[in-house]
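Quick log. Single chain, no ligands specified.
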Amino acid sequence: MPNQIPYNPDTGYNIPETLENFFSPWKFSNNGSYTLVYVEGSAVPAAYNFDLKIKDFIAADIDLKYDSFLIKFKPRTFTTALDDAIAITGELVSDAEGYALTSENLEVSFAISFAGIGILSATSYRSGFRLEAYGLIDGQEYLLEEIVFNLFANVISQDELVFVPDKASMSYLQNGVDPDDLSIQLYTGSSFVIRANKVLQLSGVNLVANTEYSESITEYTGSGSQAITIALDRTNLNWEGRTLQYYLTTSNTSRSKLFEVLIHQLTTGTIEVDPLNLSFAAVRNIFEAAEQEITINTPSDFTVTVPNWMEYRYGITGILVKPVPSANFALGTYTGEIIIETAVDTARIFVTHRVTETADFNLDGAVIWCRDQEALSTFYSADDDAFASLLLEAVIYNPNTGINQAFLNDYALAFFQNSAEFHIGDVVKRLFSKPDNINRYGLLSKLQNTEDTRLMIYNPPVFCDLTYEVAGTSEIIKNKAFLDGRKPAQEITAAAILKAEKIVQRVTLKSVALVNFYNQNLLSDLVLFRNNQQISSEVITSGSGYLYGQMLRFSEYDPGDRIRLELQSGTEKIKEEFIVFPDQHLSNHIAWYNEYQTQELFEFTGDWRFESEYEMKDFKRLGNLVEELQRVDTRKEMSLVINTGWIPKSNQVIIDEIIMSKLAWLITEDLRTINLVPQSKKMTNEDSANGLYAYDVEFIINKAHDLKSHTSLI
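-> predicted structure:
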């Protein structure tokens, strides 16, 4: 059953009943945190009282592993000034030897007094405590869990103006009842003036209204900290059927501040929520997931349903949600939905929660893409001075020698604010042995044999073992597969098209192209379409390979045809598309190895030219009383400048790949090859005057010897 939130509930969290029975979590009455705002020179605030229901470790010990349980109170020291200004009391605080847990004493209380708060200067402070739960076996204590309470103190000067919360909103229907009044708190030690549109009626302890200030604005004067009530006066408000934005302009002799009030005018009982996605993360014994706010705009009563591992409470503009403490989870990632419902509408918020311990490798999936910047591993330690290391062991296949090579390295990690980040893929990408031969995977052989439709099989991944060690503990990941390149734009379960951007590639009747893909599905289909009509299908098996290439020829198609190759696995599919352009007089292909260490082909249909640059080394000598010039050496550097022919502007990413590649080859129509190194340093990515583009691309020729000439090749 969904949980009904009353319009003005208390501030505690609501946890589904099934969660109570399953997790029996720790439950602070205040979300495990309290923030005090104190104005310098004002009276000492009253003591703050709150309750805690301790997790029922006795009921959770279904195997009767432990003889008994203890809860120990540990102060947290951040700033000694605040620690000296407060006093924390309660059942858990008074028992120095530890609070012996029974099934009858799970509910305890705390009080925080602030007798010394007046000596603190204006700034922000932090304090709190940690509770450690121990299980005892034959008198030996074993740490089971930790939970933290955070105390924040914001000491402000007399002339400061601080609102809590920092904004507010209300909603109503066109013909519905007035929305409930809003209550906000203003903290200040000075006299102040508030100017507000007359649609907002304010009241407070000593607020005095001057309605004659202007036709549309009321001016309020007051002094000192106080609660302020905001009521909506609909007689002064025109109906516009949208969200209206107003501000309370608050000022004193030295400062001014704006407080935003949103008024949502709704025509039906629909729900507006923001955001639609939430992500949480927690690290056991280091930090818990922070609560996040969901703004809810609706004039109707609504219900809230949360996953059984979450809890919520009502806020000023919606609800605040967070997962239950991480000690209640197994390590992993959890997903679910938060559902907000009225009688006529439903809103859903997708939520994920990741629970880790000392290491969050963030290496989910069958393979890891080395250049995926989101695949960042994070490691944790309660002690910033702790020594930690990451040991990386790998086996690398060298395609040029056919030999496997071993790699072993230990990386030291430095912690800042209890965490350290490391991009493992950035290290592994340097381990790949780059192919140095155009025919390493049989490309030329397949170009010569037009009947050969077999898949090209590329290098296997780099397989790594990862060991993270800190403070006598370790976490290990075995045999994780890494592939070079960015995360592909098209990815399905255990398969991907090896392109970081999805485009439709230009080809002609003379073009040959390679569609490269990753596939680890036992059975898949490669299906070829012409103008959405299937023309062939081939069943493929993954075998022991990971990366494959399928060669496509376009000589049997017509200009204007759209050709699509789909990789289908079950109900999932990914595709690469081509559009056939008219033939040009010239046709040459450039081959190169891309970021995934697979081969690509692209047809250049424009003009070309070879250029030679000579470097001469001469010296002068004196002979027979005459100065003579003698040549010591002559070196020749040859380059190729070739035009792409007309291509769509989206295809410039292909030219960009070619220029950024470290090695390329020119393949002529009669399949002769020239070894090239891309040399172009500038390219026009987009021109508003053009729909099609043509680029001159320059390459340096790796020649066999200085006398080699290529002018008769193409």
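The chain is about 5% helix and 50% strand.
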